[in-house]
Amino acid sequence: MPINEQRIAEELRLIADEAQPVDPVGYATRAGAGASRRRRLSWSLAGLVTATALVAGVFVVSPLREGGDIAAQVAALPRNTPEQLRLVRDCMPMGGPVHNMDPGLRIPEEGRAEDFRVLTEYRDKEGSTALVGSTAGFVLCTPTEQKDMTEPAVFTYWGYQPPGSLTRLAGNLTVDAYETHDPPPVGPERRQRNDSYLVIAGRVAPGVQRVEIVWKGGRRTDARVANGFFLGRMLTGLVPAPEGLGEGPLKPKQIVDTPSATVTAYDQAGRVIGQEKNVHYSWRGPTSRPSPTP
Predict the structure, then answer these.
(1) Which domain holds residue 267?
(2) Would 291 disulfide with which of 53, 56, 60, 165, CB 3.0-4.6 Å?
(3) Positive or negative: CA dihedral 82, 87, 88, 92
(4) What is the pLDDT of residues 32-70, one digit of tens each?
(5) SS (H, E, C) 86-98
(6) What is the pLDDT of residue 260?
(7) Which residues pair with 137 in a beta bridge?
(8) Total number of domains constituting the chain
(9) What residue intervals traverse the membrane (predicted)?
(10) Does 51 fall in a domain?
């Protein structure tokens, strides 16, 4: 049965909101049942640990402070070129964002494809991933020629609650998301590849000229910075699943390797003017920071 760690995390977030007892296996099954497009029998350990920690109340809300106006103001998002408009439409084949458990169910209140702009796009020899946003929120898009394998256009509000706060920053650097996207299958048999993209994206204040992402273990990349936004990605592989993770048909043999990362913002002179350490998989802004140790 295909398993999608992002959906598992989102389901557990819903449990936390509802303050109900948690049945991890039951909710994992529910998440997997709604993820028919997922192509790998593996979980992200970091994603599961993060989601469980959120439900358990380990993380606390850190207050945001107002930063400088970002380059893309609410009333002046960058216009899409014809190529970018095609990317947005390909990313949202239903015409807009969809339900995180049902890619066939569009959520009209989260906007139409025409409301979204390509804010920044990271390209490498494998392809690209784009941060696509509106004044209310964003979607991460990894284009593929195999349209039925497109990542679901799952929407996140800027600031993580409606109506969305695009210009409210956590200082010079705001990390908004850390997710995984799958590369397209290979060959006419559509064989699943044994790797995934680690994707980290967010916003920066004026004066930020470069953003560097360094994952635990030493892998690094310079993110693409444009319009007051940044995005970087890196290929990752599978690692053996630890003992005790899942039971029966939900017990994976391998999981996606999702190490934590440090994201650093630099000014034109090369000085560090913003940094977020220990950015973990399924990161959702400053509210994802661990609570201080007593």
Answers:
(1) 67-279
(2) 60
(3) positive
(4) 333 333 444 344 544 444 444 333 333 232 333 334 444
(5) HHHHHHCCCCCCE
(6) 96
(7) 157
(8) 1
(9) 45-64
(10) no
